[in-house]
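REVIEWER CHECKLIST
Item 1: Sequence provided? yes
Item 2: Single chain? yes
Item 3: Sequence as submitted:
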Amino acid sequence: MLKRYYKHRWLKLLLILAIFDVCIYLWWTGNQKERQFDSIIQNAEKEFKVEFALIKAVIWHESRFNEKAIGKAGEIGLMQLMELAAFEWADKKKIENFEHIHVFDPRTNILAGTYYLKTRMARYAHTDDPLPFALADYNAGRANVLRWAKDTARTNSVNFINNIDFPGTRKYIDQVSSRMNQYR
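Item 4: Structure as written out by the authors:
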């Protein structure tokens, strides 16, 4: 009876160690995936003066660091760029023969996405906190931001967030902001 107890105890211990090893491996690979684009993000941060943690948080939310991600509306890559946003960056950089498919390249995607994010932040510089406005614009578009930014919500971020009637956009702002704080 005592031998049987120790035999089962040994098997339980092995099972616990195996589960622990799998958890460590999954954590490590996930962590590596999140760090693989850090040097590109740092370059984008320097070029466009957009916080590293914000860029990384947007990438995390948009694609979970999958450079081959394709959205339902035709968004491409790490920062899920729409064609218009990608061409806005390419025009600014005077890149000839640019095609939307080029944003599958992580460097191009992060630079174009960060440029687009910077222009959204600059668009709402007159507010008490441009971040929620910029993230709402990035997620739901300018027309919706203008609809939500009425009266005091035009410059007050708390009132603005309260006016957002898309639960997904509210969640987007919350999750990106939270993740950004984690990356800081």
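Item 5: Key structural point noted by reviewer: The radius of gyration is 21 Å.
Item 6: Recommendation: ____
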